[in-house]
Specification:
about 300 residues, alpha/beta, TIM Barrel, 12 helices, 8 strands, about 45% helix, Aldolase_TIM, 4-hydroxy-tetrahydrodipicolinate synthase activity
Length: about 300
């Protein structure tokens, strides 16, 4: 299925059972709700998906199960976060074999590659696959920035088509657009900068709290892209305390706790992660409870034009 790099693309969590196996029933429940809310794609195996702890067989199950579930409704994209070029090529080959429609790619993990090494890494993988690629540009968390000159070199590969923009610099959206026009699609990768990014011209939003609040997330995107800025901003302001749960080392636990509150997930995480405990759990739960108490109605919003 062709990937259109726009709209809301949830980086979904991986659901586990108490016995630390994949909970496919709960996982598919969440996927169905995402699709029904109007998301534009499903991203598997990101940080929220606890990719670093997933086994290869589990990744295959998640991709094949998701592809079978969504059919032709939305594309399925899997994240590649590998330590070696050889491993990234193998991951891209597996993604195609499993039935994924596209890739989200991080720079090399653990090793802080220089500019030439990073460009070579992305280039070799892009040249090895026909799948479309979204580069994940997150220097804050991963230590490597993909700069405009680097994108200039990378865009000679037609399957490098989008960037998950997570530099935390909103002005970078304008620089990317000025430099590359529509050749490079831009998706916001930071929940707390989503409204600002969409107003600045981002094409989409790779979202985290969407896992628990899909309708509100899609509504903000739709309102912002159709010029209903006041309504989008009001909804975004309500959402902000929740969105801040995504910019935390415990974002997986935070968002899974939110999924429990909305009936779309469980708290089970894979070790070494542990569910939130003590005062921090109480703090996060208060944020979630307050948001649910004040949850706005969407029925009166301009969501049809």
């Amino acid at each position: 299925m062709r990937v259109v790099w726009e709209g809301v693309m949830p980086a979904v969590t991986t659901k586990f059972t108490k016995e630390d196996t994949l909970d496919l029933d709960l996982f598919l429940k969440n996927i169905k709700v995402q699709v029904n809310a109007g998301v534009s794609g499903i991203i598997l195996g990101g940080t929220l998906g606890e990719a670093s702890t997933l086994e290869e067989g589990e990744k295959e199950i998640l991709v094949r199960t998701t592809v079978e579930s969504v059919g032709e409704d939305v594309p399925v994209i899997i994240n590649i976060a590998e330590q070696s070029t050889k491993g990234a090529i193998r991951a891209a080959e597996n993604a195609a074999r499993f039935g994924a429609d596209g890739l989200m790619m991080l720079p090399p993990m653990r090793y802080k590659a220089n500019e030439k090494e990073t460009v070579t890494y992305f280039s070799v993988v892009a040249d090895s696959t026909d799948l479309p690629i979204m580069i994940y540009n997150n220097p804050v968390d991963y230590g490597i920035e993909v700069t405009l000159p680097m994108f200039e070199k990378l865009l000679r590969f037609p399957n490098i088509q989008a960037v998950k923009e997570s530099t935390r610099d909103i002005t970078n959206i304008t620089r990317l657009r000025n430099q590359f026009g529509d050749r490079l699609k831009i998706l916001c990768g930071v929940d707390t900068l989503a409204y600002e990014s969409l107003v600045a011209g981002a094409d989409g939003w790779v979202a985290g709290l969407v896992c628990a609040f899909p309708e509100e997330t899609v509504a903000i995107y739709h309102l912002a892209k159709t010029g209903h800025y006041k309504e989008a901003l009001a909804l975004y302001r309500w959402f902000m305390p929740l969105l801040e749960l995504d910019i935390s080392p415990q974002l997986v636990q935070n968002i899974k706790l939110a999924e429990v509150a909305t009936g779309l997930g469980s708290e089970y995480v894979r070790a070494p992660r542990l569910p939130l405990q003590g005062a921090e759990r109480e703090r996060v739960q208060r944020i979630i409870d307050t948001a649910l108490t004040n949850r706005p109605a969407l029925s009166g919003l301009n969501l049809t034009n």
